[in-house]
């Protein structure tokens, strides 16, 4: 997957939007993604009803060894 920039609702910003970089989609049949927000790799979901990403930079932080 080629990384791309978009906006997402960020957990630490209490739902306000900010720019993220979508890095990977580990399981093609699901709507879970690995994104980069402010230099932190974290999990995100894409909601098809709202057509928006929701990134969890508080509880969904992904350490480098987990991502390899």
Report what the structure shows.
With 68 residues, the chain is mainly beta. It has one domain (4-63). Helices cover 6% and strands 57% of the residues. The protein has 1 helix and 5 strands; from the N terminus they run E-E-E-E-E-H. The chain has a 5-stranded mixed beta barrel with strand order 1-2-3-4-5.
What would the keywords be for this entry?
single chain, 68 residues, mainly beta, 5-stranded mixed beta barrel, 1 helix, 5 strands, globular
Structural class: mainly beta
Strand content: over 45%
- Kindly report how far apart the N and C termini lie: 15 Å
Strand order of the largest sheet: 1-2-3-4-5
Shape: globular
Short characterization:
This protein is mostly beta strands and 68 residues long.
How do the strands and helices of this protein lay out in sequence?
Elements: E1 4-10, E2 17-24, E3 32-37, E4 40-47, E5 52-61, H1 64-67
Parallel strand pairs: 1-5
Antiparallel strand pairs: 1-2, 2-3, 3-4, 4-5
């Amino acid at each position: 997957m080629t990384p791309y920039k978009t906006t997402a609702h960020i957990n630490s910003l209490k739902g306000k939007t900010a720019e993220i970089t979508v890095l990977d989609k580990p399981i093609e049949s699901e709507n879970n993604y690995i994104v980069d927000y402010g230099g932190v790799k974290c999990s995100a979901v894409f909601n098809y009803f709202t057509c928006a990403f929701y990134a969890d930079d508080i509880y969904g932080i992904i350490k480098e060894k987990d991502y390899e």
